Amino acid sequence: MKKFYSFLLVLLLSFGVLAGCGQSDSNDGAKKKENPQTVETEKAEFPVTIKDASDKEVVIEKKPERIVSLIPSNTEIAFSLGLGDEVVGVSDFDTYPKEVANKEKIGGMDFNLEKIISLNPDLVLAHGSSAHNSTEGLQQLRDSGIKVIIVNDAKSFEEVYNSIEMVGKATGEVKKSKEIISDMKGKIANIKEKAAEITEDEMKTVYVEVSPAPEMFTTGKNTFMNEMLEIINANNMAGNLDGWVKIDQEAIIKKNPDVIITTYGYYTEDPAGQVLSRDGWKDINAVKNKQVFDVHSEIVTRSGPRLAEGVEELANAIYPEVFK
């Protein structure tokens, strides 16, 4: 059981238009009259001052050339910004993109301070979910002359956009961060447009199982999964609960969900088959109709750019007739 709870904690931790230019008598004139604020957003302007998730103001004098990430979501953001070459160290839990396998590992929840310092980073990307447990270590990094940014512990898409924007500003990739956020928002908007076709009578009740029997956990409000289900116009069976909570089989059977989503197929063989064969579950609608699907936990819990893909995958699983 201790092993399971440690894994669950890691899982949860793994989980932020340019103006036009005026008219001119010539093309050269138009370029000269281009909005200066627009130009600034496209440049890597340094020094920059970042107010991070701990309310500390961090001044970064020049574009970082060596970056260490302490948590997978920060790593994914950095790579999406095109900073794969600059990332020199990642956590033991990093799995995406595949290039992280070749990066130096700096430890898990208890990072290796000496290892980080030996990598000579310009910038360390810490995270609000674990910073309170690493106060002394992060301060030692600062005392060593390393800039440390604590990225917010995002619990919603808006907060993820803020995280991406913060990392983009700190690394001189403001334009790219805006493009990523715009792309994510565009995908979500398209999904919402299709979901609007689903009537109240057609809404499906969904049970999300984030760990297998016998210790079953699900996701309530104030989680990405709950927001994703709202986006696709589905009803979260555990929406009246808060956060990640343990749930018993009797409650699930009583709620009788239409669809069951598991998120542990990457470490458990045939999760859908396990659910379909459980004693006492044969009368649950999702089991009777074989509406049990597995999605990878990373794309529905990790607070990075792939969350929009997670919404798409959930939508296709729950409402295939709508989201073709």
Automatic annotation (TrEMBL):
Residues making up the signal peptide according to the UniProt record: 1-19
Domain of life: Bacteria
UniProt keywords, alphabetically: Signal
Residue stretches making up the Fe/B12 periplasmic-binding domain: 66-322
SUPFAM superfamilies: Helical backbone' metal receptor
Annotated Pfam families: Peripla_BP_2
InterPro entries, per database record: ABC_Transporter_SBP, ABC_transptr_periplasmic_BD, Vit_B12_bind_prot
Family membership: Belongs to the bacterial solute-binding protein 8 family.
Protein name: Iron complex transport system substrate-binding protein
Biological source species: Rossellomorea pakistanensis
